[in-house]
């Protein structure tokens, strides 16, 4: 008789193992989940290996998706493996030669669908992509909104740390204004992340008022 274990396989849900019947299905063990997370980090590191952030230090780009996943886990108290894996992959189709089919084959359908939600259509002009992020923010799934919030939090903190090479102060202000519009479309998703974002927006408003002779905020 065939060993029951030979019937087990990981399906397109990365955190479930299914057997020959529903009774045989189970969630992955902690060790198996850890293995998938490490596999994903390695996958993302290889894909992003030649990319750098736009700061003067040319920080390795992989720091960003790992940082977004860390914000979700440590500050958002999000421990859903699907969200963490999707966060690690959230820029990978936009910025590398990775396909959605590759993501689905490696990490499952749900992860792939979330990555699709947070991926811009690079065939569109940049201004149109940014406009669509604002328009579509409220329409995204809860898990995609979590990634959007953590992504904006990471990027805004990075802007506070160092302005990208070639950016003017006006461009920085516009990025804050645009980010707030996207975040506002994700309100009600995660109190902790939204609170941290609001602290940053408040600090920016205070800074702009201090530097503006008419004392009016540049962020509504």
Nutshell version of this structure?
With 220 residues, this protein is mainly α. Helix content is 58%, strand content 3%. The chain has helices at 30-47, 63-74, 81-88, 92-95, 100-107, 109-117, 126-136, 142-161, 169-184, 191-211; strands at 9-10, 16-18, 26-27.
Provide the descriptors you would attach to this structure in a database record:
220 residues, mainly alpha, 10 helices, 3 strands, 58% helix
Account of the 3D structure:
- The protein is mostly helical and 220 residues long.
- The chain is 58% helix and 3% strand.
- It contains ten helices and three strands; from the N terminus they run βββαααααααααα.
- The protein has helices at residues 30-47, 63-74, 81-88, 92-95, 100-107, 109-117, 126-136, 142-161, 169-184, 191-211, and strands spanning 9-10, 16-18, 26-27.
- The protein has a three-stranded antiparallel beta sheet with strand order 1-2-3, with no helix packed on it.
- A hairpin with a 5-residue loop joins strand 1 (9-10) and strand 2 (16-18).
- Helix 1 (30-47) packs parallel to helix 3, helix 2 packs antiparallel against helix 3 (81-88) and helix 3 (81-88) packs across helix 6 (109-117).
- The longest helix has 21 residues, at 191-211.
- The protein is globular and about 70 Å long.
- Residues 1-11 have low confidence and may be disordered.
- It catalyses: guanosine 3',5'-bis(diphosphate) + H2O = GDP + diphosphate + H(+).
- InterPro entries: HD/PDEase_dom, HD_domain, MESH1.
């Amino acid at each position: 008789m065939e060993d029951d274990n030979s019937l087990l396989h990981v399906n397109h849900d990365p955190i479930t193992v299914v057997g020959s019947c529903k009774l045989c299905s189970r969630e992955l063990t902690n060790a198996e989940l850890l293995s998938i997370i490490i596999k994903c980090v390695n996958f993302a590191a290889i894909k992003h290996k030649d990319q750098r952030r736009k700061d003067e230090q040319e920080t390795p780009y992989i720091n960003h998706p790992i940082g977004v996943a860390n914000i979700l886990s440590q500050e958002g108290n999000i421990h859903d493996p699907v969200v963490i894996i999707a966060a690690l992959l959230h820029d990978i189709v936009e910025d590398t030669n990775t396909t959605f089919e590759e993501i689905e084959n490696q990490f499952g359908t749900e992860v792939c669908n979330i990555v699709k939600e947070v991926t811009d259509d690079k065939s569109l002009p940049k201004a149109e992509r940014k406009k669509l992020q604002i328009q579509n923010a409220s329409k995204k799934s809860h898990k995609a909104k979590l990634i959007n919030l953590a992504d904006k939090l990471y990027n805004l903190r990075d802007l506070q740390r160092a302005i990208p090479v070639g950016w003017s102060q006006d461009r920085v202000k516009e990025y804050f204004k645009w980010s707030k519009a996207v975040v506002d479309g994700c309100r009600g998703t995660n109190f902790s992340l939204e609170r941290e974002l609001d602290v940053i927006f408040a600090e920016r408003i205070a800074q702009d008022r201090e530097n503006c002779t008419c004392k009016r905020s540049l962020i509504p």
